[in-house]
Each structure stands twice: as C-alpha cells, then as structure tokens.
Amino acid sequence: MEGTLNLVGAGLIVIGAGLGIGRIGGSAMDAIARQPEASGKIQTAMLIAAALIEGIGFAALFAVK
Amino acid sequence: MVISKHPLRFILTALIAGLPLFSFANIVSDSTKVHAETIHLVSDSAKVVTETATTTKELVSKEDLAAEERAEFIQHHLLDSHDFHLFSYGKESGHEKHIGFPLPVILWEDGLHFFMSSKFNHGEAVAESNGKYFAINHHNGMIYNTGAKGTFNVDEKHHTTNTKPIDFSMTKSIVMILIVALLMLVIFRNLGKSYAKNGGIATGVGRFFEPLVLYIRDEIAIPNIGEKHYKKYMSHLLTVFFFIWFLNMFGLTPLGVNVTGNIAITAALAIITYLITTFTANRNYWGHIFWMPGVPVPMKIILAPIEFLGTIIKPFSLMIRLYANMLAGHVVLMSIIALMYTFNSPIGSPLSFVLAFVLSILEILVALLQAYIFTMLTALYFGAAKEEHHHEGADHH
Predict the structure, then answer these.
(1) Which candidate, A64, B133, B149, B191, has a CA 20 to 30 Å from the CA of B383?
(2) Distance from CA of A63 to the nearest CA of B (A)
(3) Chain B residues with CB inside 8 Å of A51's CB?
(4) Is the pTM of this model over 0.90?
C-alpha cells in the first residue's frame, strides 16, 4: 500500500511538472509573438526555467525508486 | 560559418540513412534469442491442438520469459561493463559467439589483481588471480568476491551479500571517456593551431566547432558571468559542454555506451562545478548565503541554512537532470525497439522502426540540449559566485 501511495505522489508531481513546463512554453510563445526581436533571450530563460522544473520531476521519480 | 553545402548534405543524408541501422544494431543478440523463442512458440501452438490446458500455461510462461529477457537486455544495455561487447550471434545453434574486445580489470583485494576481462568469459566464468576468485554479477555488472565455484549468496530481499573488491578497472565507460578526451584534444588543438597557420581563420572541422565555442562565450559565459571574470571559467564551460555533447552522441551509436546515463560520471561533473563555485566565490556570495542583506534578522537566521542547503542542491540537480534525461532516453529507445518482439506480428516492425527513427532524431536534439543546459546552469552558478554587488530584482546585466 505504501508503495502505491508513493507512486501516486510521484505521478502528481510529474503532472505538476508537466503543467509547469507547459505554462512556461506557452508563455514563452506569447512573449515571442509580442517581441520577436527578443526571442533569443526568451528562449534561454524558458529553457533554464523548464530545466529547473524538470529537475524536481526527476527528483520525485528517484525518491520513489 | 563557411561549410560547402554538398558535404553537409551528404553527411545529413548518411546520418538519416544510417539511423535505422544505429537503432537496430544493439538488438542483434536479442533478435536471435527471440527468433529461437518464436520457433518454440510455433511448435508449441501446434501441440495446443492435441494437448489443451497444459500447453497454454506453458505458452504464457514462455511469453513471460521472453518479456523478462527483453527487460534484462535493456537493463544490460544501460549498465557499464567490463568488456567492450559489440554483438553476439549463434545463440540458436547452442554455442554463442560474442564479438568485442576485453578490457583490463584492476582490483584491490589483499593486494593488487590485474588481468584481462576475457578471463571472465563474458561473465560466465570465475576469474582466478593470486589465489582469489572473482565473478561478475549479471544483475548489476559488478565484480564480487566469490569462492572457486562462483556462487552468489543472496538475502531474502535478493540483495547479494558477497563482498566486493575495490574496483579500478578500465570499464567500457572509462574507455569511452578516454576516447572522447583524445578526440577533443585533437579537434581543439588543431582548431587552435589553425588560427596561426591560416591567418586567423579556422580550417577543416574547426569551422564547425568555432561558432559553437563563440556561442558559449558570447551567449552563455559573458551574459551570466560578466565581462570581467568570464575568461577564467571558459575552459571549464567549454570542456563540460563538448564532453557531455560528444558522450551523448556516442550514446546514440551502435557502440551501446551509456556514459552520461551513469550517475557516477554526472556526479563527478557536478562535483567539479560545485568545487569551482565554492573556491572562486567572493565575499558577496557568502554574504548572501549566511547573512542575507535586506531582510530582518530573524529571517536571516532562518534563511542561512536554507541558502546553504541550496548550494548543495544546485549541483545535485545538475547531476540528476543529466543522468535521468540520458537514462530515460535510452530506456525509451530500447523499449520501442523491443516493441517488435512484443507485437511479434507484421505490424510490430514498421511501427517500432518509425517510432525509433523519430525518437532517435529527438534524442539528437536532447543530446545537444542537455549539454547546453548543463553548461548554462554551470555558468549561472559561477555568475552567482562572482556577482559584485547586490541588484534589486532579477536583472543580472
């Protein structure tokens, strides 16, 4: 039972991480559409933020394992 | 960047044409295995007509066995190993042949033991050296101390209780690291030399790498670390970027190496980043950690341990991110290739081929992206260690 609950928790975190990265990507798209000349900087910031969230997602998966 | 269009087109075409070969190359021993398995299945289904219930049970267990073998094959691919194994054949005829080459094994167990891994006979034999016996455990690919018979003792949780010798062996990962180091030395030495010879213009393969080096300097190092201090850190940033990128790319070839998907290697990279950050930090950095300016005193006391923990979590997340991304990429790719044996029908192969093809292209992107992110975040941490004075807000420029 404990193992199953852990898996559910990990699943929730992965859902959260997915939503977060989706939001970052969407907002970056908006920002690039508004200011195409700043697309380079926006992309960099987007990748960093996405990578940080991804780290949390992986940490959750490893905590379960 | 000046590259004649035709060689580029040729390289791209060759790469795309070669992709399916890359994807399928690792599976050869599995395909013979599963092929033999299929023959058994077919002969078994013939029996089903005459003997009903018992054979069906046997069929199910055989399918379970095949699935287990696939899982073991993927597992084996992800592990480091003591010999450089390229492929195997002849499983169905009884005497399997392995193609590859042995690597030196260096162990410390009451004295130094040095022998070639061919003594293990691909993990099937017990190696004897100076009166000690060693054998490779199939589950984790590690060398354990065993008796002359090579038996592993397991406890009730299926953990091996045998003791391990201290292992300094040249494993497959280490061979790949050395190859990549040599490759980088040749490429970048030649790039550096070509400036002197050719009046400041790069020649040969350096023309491809020069823009990447400039990109790391102009887009990663200078904006994050600052004009004043970036030069000191460039060597580490460039080394880390190309090291990770090359190893990631080697991981996609049929050599079947998984170096950046090995937590020890990413940990080493992250520890180097941590040490450089810690030892080059100025007083501002430590001030921000232990006595955060601009917040009330009780808050400063609460923040100090959190901030200190943060300095350790940062390289830790670097390590986990690279390791998990590369491992996940390999697992998914291998699982998709194994799909054709799961389906065991004419639909399976094209499906698995198309998916593996698309995923391989995605993995090429991920290989570059992970190298970029590791370098980028490393530069960000270096920048934090070298920040001169406190800025309000998130503006670092």
Answers:
(1) B191
(2) 11
(3) 321, 373, 376-377
(4) no
